[in-house]
Structure formats: C-alpha cells, structure tokens
Amino acid sequence: MSSLPVAAVLPELLSALRHAPQVLLNAPTGAGKSTWLPLQILAEGNINGRIILLEPRRLAARNVAQRLAELLGEKPGETVGYRMRAETCVGPNTRLEVVTEGILTRMIQRDPELSGVGLAILDEFHERSLQADLA
Fold it and tell me: Where in the numbering of this chain does the Helicase ATP-binding domain appear (predicted)?
C-alpha cells in the first residue's frame, strides 16, 4: 500500500462511496488526492460508469491526466483521458476523464443526469468559481 496520507483512509472512503451520495475528503497538499486516489477508486471502487475528475485549470487538467496515465504505464486517451476547450484526448476505453469546469458545465447542460458517469470528483474544491458552483 502507498505511504501517501490518503492511503490510510482508502477503505473508509470506498465504503462511504458505496453508501452515500456525497463524500467529502479534506487532506493536505501532496496527500495523493489528485493522483493516487482516483486510480485506487478506479481499481477498487466498483464504480458503474466513467469517473469524471474536475480540475479548475486547463494546465492542471492536462498535467493530472498525463500523470495518471503515466502511473498506469499508458498514454493519455487510453484508460485515463482529458477534455478541455479545443483539446480532447479520450478513447473508447477511457474510464477516468479529467475535465475543466467549462466542459463539465456543458456536459450537464447536454445531459443533466450525466448518463454513463458513475462518480464525479471535484478536485481543488477550495478554488471554487461561479462556473463550478453552477455545475
């Protein structure tokens, strides 16, 4: 198991995800919330559908997706992909999609139920914006 701080709460978090519609996790910078945790949820979480990971900035979205894919030994667009304005890197087997606020807003406008999405993770929630709050 990882030595990252979030590893200690993984079993409790996975249990909470099975029993609650919303789960909040507060952990310090570098705890593994953006990189290690989404991959563990993907592997062990029994999530039906894709996982959407919201990042507040384009650069963060691309970098997080690239790091997640690298940790899987893949390139972005395989298991992990990303979407932002004017740039999409997803494939038919993408299960974890890192998106920006504008993309998530458009996804909800087109499909308010987010069909095919089993979990939405709002990363960097403290960097809230009106667009993210509306989504």
Answer: 14-135
Q: What is the largest CA-CA distance in the chain?
A: 40
Cβ-count burial 103-133 (b if 16+ within 10 Å, e if not): bbeebeeeeeebeebbbbbbbeeeeeeeebe
Q: Coil, strand, or helix at residue 83? A: strand
Tens-place pLDDT, residues 81-121 = 999 999 999 999 999 999 999 999 999 999 999 999 999 99
Helix, coil or strand: residue 101: helix
Domains present along the chain, CATH in parentheses? 33-134 (3.40.50.300)
Residues 54/133, Cβ–Cβ less than 8 Å: no
Residues 6+ positions from 60 with CB-CB distance below 8 Å: 124
Name the pTM for this structure: 0.87
Distances (CA, A) of 59 to 40, 50, 82, 84, 85: 23, 22, 11, 10, 12
Q: What is the C-alpha separation between 26 and 33, in angstroms, rounded?
A: 9
The residue with tokens 């290690």 is 36
Where do we find the tokens 């200690």?
A: 8
